[in-house]
Design brief:
Spore Coat Polysaccharide Biosynthesis Protein SpsA, Chain A; seven-stranded mixed beta sheet
Length: 674
């Protein structure tokens, strides 16, 4: 860290709601700074996850800038750069880990190459896979076209089609490149003073391309430097499968095109990018939609097909009459049965990410019970056969479970589908740190099949099953599915070496020294995995959110249909209509947080509620601390039955007038970085 002499490096990290990843990044920065004059800035863009408190408590040497809003990535970086005193400036993402030698190696290279204005390094993701955006070319119209239509992905090694990621350049050789990745931009401060700071017209994305372009235009070189590697947990600040990402990224490219190109070339570029926005948005909608409905549609097709077969089979072999059943059964009964079974599986969580077979079976059993009840209400002419319902239930169970086994086997070549056995875990670290990790897992209620500890040194520690140099043998012999590295004992460069060597077949996590969190990410486009003893809110569980919304819709429809009756019970029945319509439109929920002066700011977001937990005791005056506590308990222990209890107790208040909803500032909802 800096002393009285000149500063070599100023590290700037812009953070937005990734506290646990920021903690790990700062620990790696602290270790990489040893023996160097380094100052570190953290600019927080109004996070609500206690990032600011964590930095103040755990990293007092950091110069913290806490913004009251989210001004964007470029603005936040410029705030720190204007105060930077280093010979070099490093713009670093909060969801990264740098090697212990990264800063020294980069500084030595830049000192030896004064023509270099900026430098980027080799990056890997949380699965140990090389990230192609480590080296990029400028987005000319042709380059943008190839990226937009997917040619760069189809031909990753082509000089002609993949100029964007320079896929034809070896990842392990030093190259002059066009664009530095915004996750790690090592910049010469004198060059930055010459070409200017980040362009604040870019809110997020594009500012790294723009700055890289200006460096080259000023006569400097941008260098891809693979002699050091950093870990970049892709997807932590922005979901790349979202429409918001598509819109923000391509709008940034349009700003770049209008700024740096002129005449027909600029118009062509902008037109292509605008077309790219609509094309990628359409593809994103289709992809997201298919991802959500493909499993239910496959189940529905198989169930319906089985019912058609069972109809012919049962009519022929039981009734000895192939035409025993009316043709209407194909168009009324079977679609109804199929819809009820699939809907029951959906409501039970059988289609949720990570949903296990128990939820699938539970949904089918509930659906069968619902069908039995529906059968009793159907007129005699519309009843098919109880035998078909029972046979159909057995078929639905066999075919849906069998489909999941088949798909799992095709992908993983084993039949361990959502098994109850926890993943086989090996911890790499000292005996003391290994015991601490196991305590953290226990306190976070994470079940793992602990195989043993691998000693980080060349000698096996007490109780260790091996040393680090034999980790590959350990993974193969014990069929290890997850590795947790203790950052206090294992250097970051060793962690990245083994992640790259073992590849994505193993899940990797890192526990920073003295941290209460264990961090990892196995998918570059999805949020990372986090084991922590922090508060776990039930309201964030997808099945609870889905069931809360379905419950809201059902209650709104019920109140609208029975509105004449509600005239006798509900105060302000006309306002009840307004509230019900607002719930149907998704602007409100029947139950939400208690309104307070920021009391719910650090809790999972919810729609504003018509009612709230304090309405159960309307005559009790609550101070701010009590309101916050009630909101906290509602989010932490949420269950749909809690909403029903509140609505039942406060039925007459369902028509109470609501304050007007305030529109959120769009920029405050946008994350800080890719």
């Amino acid at each position: 860290m800096p002393g009285a002499g000149p500063i070599t490096l100023s590290v700037v990290i812009v953070n937005y709601n990734v506290r646990h990843f920021l903690e790990q990044a700062l620990q790696s920065v602290r270790r990489a700074s040893e023996g160097m004059a380094v100052e570190v800035f953290v600019v927080d863009n109004n996070s609500v996850d206690d990032s600011v408190a964590m930095v103040r408590d755990r990293f007092p040497e950091v110069r913290l800038i806490a913004n009251a809003d989210n001004p964007g990535f470029a603005v936040a970086n410029n705030q720190a750069i204007r105060q930077a005193r280093g010979r070099y400036v490093l713009l670093l993402n909060p969801d990264t880990v740098v090697e212990e030698s990264t800063f020294r190696r980069c500084a030595d290279f830049m000192d030896a190459h004064p023509e270099a204005g900026g430098l980027g390094v080799r990056m890997i993701d949380g699965a140990g896979t090389f990230l192609p955006e480590s080296k990029r070319g400028f987005p000319s119209p042709w380059v943008a076209f190839c990226k937009t239509v997917g040619l760069s992905r189809l031909f990753p090694r082509s000089r002609w089609f993949n100029e964007y990621h320079l896929g034809y350049l070896p990842e392990d050789e030093i190259h002059e490149v066009d664009v530095l990745a915004g996750a790690f931009m090592w910049l010469r401060k004198s060059a930055l003073d010459e070409v200017g700071l980040l362009d604040e017209a870019f809110f997020m994305y594009g500012e790294d391309i723009d700055l890289s372009y200006r460096l080259v235009q000023a006569g400097y070189k941008n260098v891809y430097f693979p002699r050091t590697t950093i870990l970049h947990y892709k997807g932590e600040s922005t979901k790349k499968g979202s429409l918001n990402y598509v819109r923000t990224f391509y709008q940034a490219m349009i700003i770049f095109a209008r700024k740096h190109f002129q005449g027909s070339r600029a118009r062509l570029f902008v037109a292509m990018l605008q077309g790219g926005i609509y094309l990628r948005a359409l593809l994103t909608l289709i992809s997201n939609g298919l991802r959500r409905v493909i499993a239910p549609l496959m189940d529905a097709a198989l169930i319906y097909g089985g019912l058609v077969f069972l109809r012919s089979f049962w009519a022929t072999y039981h009734f000895r009459d192939p035409d025993y059943y009316d043709e209407r059964i194909l168009y009324v009964n079977f679609p109804l049965y199929t819809a009820i079974w699939v809907a029951s599986v959906f409501l039970s969580g059988g289609y949720d990410r990570g949903g296990d077979l128990r939820r699938l079976v539970r949904g089918l059993l509930v659906g069968t019970l619902v069908l039995a009840a529906v059968y009793g209400f159907l007129g005699q002419a519309w009843r098919s056969s109880r035998a078909l319902i029972l046979l159909g239930a057995v078929w639905a169970l066999l075919v849906t479970v069998g489909l999941r086994y088949l798909m799992h086997f095709i992908r993983y070549r084993n039949l361990n589908v959502h098994r109850d056995e926890p993943d086989k875990l090996v911890i790499v670290g000292s005996r003391e740190e290994s015991q601490r990790v196991r305590r953290l897992l226990a306190e976070a209620h994470v079940r793992k099949n602990f195989i043993g500890t691998v000693s980080p040194g060349r000698r096996e520690g007490e109780g260790a099953i091996s040393t680090l140099d034999r980790l590959e043998e350990v993974v193969r012999i014990y069929r290890v599915e997850e590795l947790i590295f203790c950052a206090r004992d294992v250097p970051a460069q060793d962690i990245m070496h083994w992640m790259t060597r073992l590849g994505p077949s193993v899940a990797y996590k890192i526990v920073p020294a003295a941290s209460l969190s264990i961090i990892g990410s196995s998918n570059r486009n999805a949020s990372g995995e986090l084991y922590t003893i922090d508060i776990q809110y039930q309201i964030v569980q997808p099945w609870h959110r889905r069931n809360k919304r379905l419950q809201d819709l059902a209650m709104a429809l019920f109140l609208l249909l029975t509105w004449p009756i509600q005239l006798l019970w509900v105060r302000n029945p006309w306002t009840l209509l307004t509230n019900a319509l607002a719930v149907l439109a998704g602007r409100r929920s029947w139950v939400g947080y208690i309104p307070s002066g920021g009391g719910a700011r650090d809790l999972p977001p919810l729609r504003p509620g018509v009612l709230h937990p304090a309405d159960v005791h309307p005559h009790v005056r609550l101070n701010e601390a009590t309101r916050h506590r009630l909101n906290f308990l509602y989010a932490k222990d949420y269950h749909p039955s809690r909403d029903l209890e509140i609505m039942w107790s406060c039925w007459r208040m369902l028509g109470k007038k609501q304050p007007r909803l305030q529109e959120k500032q769009s920029r405050n909802s946008v994350p800080s970085r890719k």
